[in-house]
Design goal:
Layout: E1 2-6, H1 11-22, E2 26-31, H2 39-48, E3 53-56, H3 62-71, E4 76-79, H4 86-91, H5 93-114, E5 118-124, H6 147-165, E6 170-176, E7 178-180, H7 199-207, E8 214-217, E9 229-230, E10 232-234, H8 235-249, E11 254-260, E12 266-267, H9 268-279, E13 285-288, E14 297-298, H10 303-309, H11 317-330
Parallel strand pairs: 1-2, 1-4, 2-3, 4-5, 5-6, 6-11, 7-10, 8-13, 9-14
Antiparallel strand pairs: 9-12
Helix pairs in contact: 1-2, 1-8, 3-5, 5-6, 7-9, 7-11, 9-11
Bound molecules: nicotinamide-adenine-dinucleotide (NAD) and uridine-5'-diphosphate.
Amino acid sequence: MELLLTGGMGYIGSHTAVSLTLAGHRVVLYDNLVKSAEVMVERLERITGISPLFVSGDVRDTDHLTDTLRHYAIDAVIHFAGLKVVGESLEIPLEYYANNVQGTISLLQAMREVGTRSLVFSSSANVYGEPRYLPVDEAHPTGVTNPYGRTKLHVEEILFDLARSDPSWRIICLRYFNPVGAHESGLIGETPQGIPNNLMPYIARVASGELAELLVFGDDYPTPDGTGVRDFIHVMDLAEGHASAVAYLTGHSGWQAINLGTGQGYSVLEMVRAFEAASGRPVPYRIAPRRPGDSASCYANPEKALRLLDWSARRSLADMCASTWAFQSGSH
Ligand code: NAD
Ligand code: UDP
């Protein structure tokens, strides 16, 4: 199939591009490079042996998107483009609504114009807010607590209304849990700008010596060791989930929300120990106060993905840590 990946030069988009290319699809990466760099094209070519098509553009530019969809005769779109930092979304909410919500409306207008009706949207477990029960399934009530999460929920609702208004639309919202890790080549991975907000890239920089110590945000949660528990999922498993979602869309119309997680939670201290084992480096840490807004535990019920998409995560925590370390130590 001919697939357009908005935001395809970013962390999850680039790994998905590898999976899709190796599965025989042709991918077009549409990105404004606000959070990525053009060197990605060359890296993807080194991994797959095929140069991906890159189109420089903003998703808010409806005319440019329309031309791109038409020019490459796109069958389906995977919509990764957007801003994703919860803390930043509290400071610059308008930029978040403009990129994430207005950007999606622009994409949908372009798709409607050319008749492309299949879409996979990058949503987030953030739409569930504080979990009321575990594991979190798709019937769990939504309850966003920050502008970033609200942009994801707004977009999901827009997509739901669209699919209801016109049965020719085929839409899947993939609710990612905590994507981590990198492609086994060590050529691509997560490169947050500045000091990382998320646990795994922070641990990787402590192990490499770039940062002195990890602050563990709270050790008095009602979890086995008192530290927060999350559902970390290998980014290549996540990437393969997109290939399965695209395959499902060829035979099904309507709207679906589907969790992509492993179903297994790991604590902050378990992550530290696993990373030390994978890297052979110490990860010094200090217990600090809880981070405002954090929940104690969050992990997925991944049964719907297995049932509908015939997909489940295969890679282990050791794989997640080893590939993160290969990328971290190779790129510095
Ligand atoms: P990323 O920042 O690495 O990639 C996003 C890409 O989108 C970047 O290449 C950026 O340049 C591009 N982009 C941003 N705004 C754009 C615009 N207006 N027009 C065109 N391109 C634009 O992020 P990621 O981790 O790969 O996340 C991809 C998607 O998955 C995002 O929508 C994010 O909200 C969602 N998501 C990510 C996580 C996570 O932990 N990484 C978790 C849940 C959901
Ligand atoms: N965390 C931490 N120190 C950090 C970053 C994160 O202790 O420097 C903890 C955080 O409190 C949470 C877990 O690690 O319990 C995962 O945090 P992350 O920001 O990666 O994901 P999210 O909280 O968005 O699920």
